[in-house]
Amino acid sequence: MSASVMGSTKKTFNDGDHHNHKKKKGAGALATAYLVIYNVIMTAGWLVIAVGLVRAYLTRGSYHGLYYSIEKPLKFFQTGALLEILHCAVQSEDSVLLFVVAWTITEIIRYSFYTFSLLNHLPYLIKWARYTFFIVLYPMGVTGELLTIYAALPYVQKTGLYSVTLPNKYNFSFDYYTFLILTMVSYIPLFPQLYFHMLRQRKKVLGHVEEYSKVE
User: What is the enclosing helix (H) or strand (E) of 119?
Assistant: First the structure.
């Protein structure tokens, strides 16, 4: 009798575990499908921006005015970066174009990398691009962002853009001009850390392949 009860209990637990495993597997599949769709859409979006830049340049024969040809899709696909969007609205075209080009190439590679990784079929070319192009694109993007912020400072100071002054009912003040300066200063310790971290990651991910190629 005891053995029968134990056997029945064990079966019940096993069935429960199997059911929970199926639920987790199903949820994981849905999450993966969602992430794949999301990354495909983001990859396509940044490809649209890249094509728009190239088409506008070929049509105009100059880089002047290129930003305005991709302004709407850029704002849509970069809505999370509110500060950068603000910069796009008020800054010099040359510096904006510098980091927009860096963003566009980086994001196409990044979202392609995520998509193929989720599908467990990552082409070596995309992996190589993910861990190589940043060597040029990161400094290029940071330079464009810093020049953009620097060019914004006189306008922000003059207009008091996004600043909150005292007195007010919340007894709170915020100086956006100072915030931008602090943001620029923060690049000094943060960028080298990120850049050298990526270099270490590149060596970790691609190092053994490159060493093997040299041996061959």
Answer: none
CA dist., res. 85 & res. 96, Å (int)? 10
- Dist CA 214 CA 208 (whole Å): 10
Name the H helices within 123-175: 124-130, 134-159
- The answer to whether 53 and 70 are in contact (CB under 8 A) is yes
The set of catalytic residues is 138, 145
Classified as helix, coil or strand, 84 is helix
> 97 near 168, Cβ under 8 Å?
no
Give ∠ CA 121-125-126 in degrees, rounded to 5.
65
The SS3 call for residue 3 is helix
CB within 8 Å of 155: residues ≥ 6 apart = 90, 161
Q: What is the pTM of this model?
A: 0.65
How far, CA to CA in Å, does 124 sit from each of 189, 208, 209?
A: 32, 13, 10
CA distance 134 to 131: 7
Tell me the pLDDT tens digit for each residue of 32-53. Answer: 776 788 778 878 888 888 888 8
Rounded to whole angstroms, the Cα distance separating 66 from 53 reads 6
Q: What is the pLDDT of residues 72-91, one digit of tens each?
A: 777 677 654 444 444 444 44
Structure tokens at 25: 């597997």
φ and ψ of 167, to 5 deg: -85, 150
